[in-house]
Specification:
Order of helices and strands: HHHHHHHHHH
Number of strands: 0
Number of helices: 10
Largest sheet: none
Length: 228
């Protein structure tokens, strides 16, 4: 009994309850730190090549070069996840762990939830429930839109700084920059990698397994089985 109780105490701790999100948050922060430091050194090297004084790290963190590339990557991630959540509600892939069953009759019935335990938009019903039913994809796509325009603004800001450094007089407006190839080159090079990652996950999950992962089917499940 003591062993069972101690195991329960371990799994009820804050780190145990939030380990997955905390691990990825730590990896994200470390990556942002690496992004900032390496981008700062690269930017200062470029500035020195043009006979300019290097800038402090705190200055660089508010620079278009850093923030433009930061939001450029966030934009593609939120687009990928938003579309993945949305499209898996309608589309199927035979054998993939991330797909709903091909036959709707094979989908398990949701477990009944007591009324008092349901989220308040569900209890409220009507438009509140309808909005809540699509709140996950909606939030991810809103984050994509916000990151898209942040990427646009800071990338344009950096582009203008580059134009001025090279003595160009005709500076593009942000909307002119939106219609140019530089901005879309930055976006599409990230979008294609995100969509490739989703295709790889969907197709590889048909044939490969990862024991105990929610992203994988059971190790003994046949390749033709759709869903986890």
């Amino acid at each position: 009994m003591a062993t069972v109780a101690s195991r329960g105490a371990v799994h009820s701790g804050f780190l145990a309850r939030n380990g997955l999100s905390l691990a990825f948050l730590a990896l994200m922060l470390l990556s942002v730190l690496g992004h900032a430091l390496t981008g700062w050194h690269a930017s200062n090297q470029e500035r020195q090549d043009h006979g300019q004084a290097p800038e402090a790290l705190t200055t660089y963190l508010g620079d278009g070069h850093f923030l433009g590339t930061l939001f450029e990557n966030w934009e593609s991630e939120f687009l990928q996840m938003g579309l993945f959540v949305l499209l898996t509600a309608f589309l199927r892939q035979k054998g993939a762990s991330e797909s709903r069953p091909l036959d709707p009759s094979e989908e398990p019935e949701p477990d009944p939830v007591p009324y008092a335990q349901r989220p308040w938009p569900v209890r409220r019903g009507g438009a509140w429930r309808k909005a809540y039913e699509h709140s996950l994809s909606g939030a991810l796509l809103l984050l994509f839109v916000g990151s898209f325009f942040a990427h646009l603004y800071f990338s344009w800001k950096h582009h203008v700084e580059q134009q001025l450094q090279h003595g160009e007089q005709a500076v593009l407006s942000m909307w002119q920059y939106l219609g140019g190839s530089d901005f879309w080159f930055e976006s599409f090079q990230n979008w294609q990698s995100e969509f490739l990652a989703v295709v790889a996950l969907v197709l590889l999950s048909i044939f490969l397994r990862e024991k105990d992962s929610t992203e994988s089917k059971d190790v003994e499940a046949p390749h033709s089985k759709t869903g986890a």
